[in-house]
Amino acid sequence: MKIIENPQEMQSFIKEQKRAGKTVGFVPTMGYLHQGHLSLVERAKRENDLVVVSIFVNPTQFGQGEDFDIYPRDFERDKNLLAKLNIDVLFYPSVEDIYPSNYKTYVEVYDITDKLCGASRPGHFKGVTTIVTKLFNMVLPDRAYFGLKDAQQVLVIKQMVKDLNFPIEIVPCPIVREEDGLAMSSRNVNLKPHEREAALVLSKSLFAAQKLILDGERDGDKIKKFIAENISKEPLANIDYVKVVSAENLEEVKEIEGEILIALAVKIGKVRLIDNIMVEV
Amino acid sequence: MKIIENPQEMQSFIKEQKRAGKTVGFVPTMGYLHQGHLSLVERAKRENDLVVVSIFVNPTQFGQGEDFDIYPRDFERDKNLLAKLNIDVLFYPSVEDIYPSNYKTYVEVYDITDKLCGASRPGHFKGVTTIVTKLFNMVLPDRAYFGLKDAQQVLVIKQMVKDLNFPIEIVPCPIVREEDGLAMSSRNVNLKPHEREAALVLSKSLFAAQKLILDGERDGDKIKKFIAENISKEPLANIDYVKVVSAENLEEVKEIEGEILIALAVKIGKVRLIDNIMVEV
After folding, report:
1. Catalytic one among B17, B26, B37, B128?
2. Rounded distance, CA B144 to CA B226, Å?
3. I need a surface site. Which of A55, A267, A280, B235 has the fewest CB within 10 A?
4. Domain contains A181
5. pLDDT tens, A155-186?
């Protein structure tokens, strides 16, 4: 496994590989890897000649007062995990190389970025689409892999790739959960033991809501209310949002039909967690 | 010369050519080609295995009340000119294929786009950087050629390419002028004969200002005033702006030093013309 820190070196290396006819799979991450990330890597390995994983905690997608400073980081641990998976390149650029002084350019997807997490975290998706554009141009992948825990992010990136004509296939990959149902997240490490217990209320509420729908409930508002009431019973939980939306455009649905996304963001103590489930009826 | 209208076809064709090891030079235009454009094409031919010229009058870079509707268009004429130059691909996409319904993504360079033409034409450069990003992703060039008549555009595109890490070299090319000094522009065709005569006041003022500086004048404000007075003597001319700025960051300069850009935009009748000159002292 090659470790590259310099963006120019990353780009030159890949251009050379592509001239040699290799296909490139890319997994962008913010590090502190869990099995969710590793499942993306495994899939990328199956589908491409060469796999690049990036680790970059992107400051522009964190708002003021958010958890950029305490976002978990452990490069040695991540490096060892990736080396075991035998990936080709670990790309680990510095903030200074990614956003040099005099940096002036942003990529923005409108409309679908105003909803869900975008409503709670203004500017978040602008930071995401900008860094992903930059990483795409540095890594020049044929396929890029994103986890569906960030369902809105997947939708935003797909929209951006389509709109800006990137020659890249976006591959959404299923959420990976702990045995007890908690969606894997690098942020879970910031939960204290009793918070870790309380955090189960997210997945449990989603699974129960899914069951209600499969049992015949079709009223979006009732599902929302059911989940909100469920979560409110947990004293450590503070709801940011609970939404039942179209999986296609994130518009709220009154009458559940077709493919819908139930998405939520909940603060457990100081840790903001997200989770979601897709339901098709 | 291959004519391609479909964006996907454009991208597939180029990917195939690049797999075969060909380098790609790209000249994006809005058509109604003049010798300025053709000089870009000639240079692209010298420096690359394959040359793509696009013709697309990009609606998103025109503001309300601007000249999108009367921007000159003549595809047959352009096609014949390019066929004679023996380029490889003429890319001629439709507005519907470039901005399909449900289009949501824009690329924006901040700061340097607020000045000069950006101040007079809000949103103009956002339209430019968005379409250029899209065209870059469709044509995947190694080098892209831009004329320095749009000096600010060149600076904005260079900033965008650096910031977003596009694997593309931007090649700025000199202004091409008519024999009497008028900078070539597709818009010149919209000038009536007496306006065409009046339009000479742009280049004449710039050349005279250049001479003043080379003769020792170093006061930016005096140069601006000199040009403005010169232009005001022409009854058909209405000044949009006259600026003496740093060629590096477009900040106005009081004391002329290093590489500066004298840039102006002037309406002759209903036709808005721009011109500029670089001076190094």
Report:
1. B37
2. 36
3. B235
4. no
5. 999 999 999 999 999 999 999 999 999 999 99
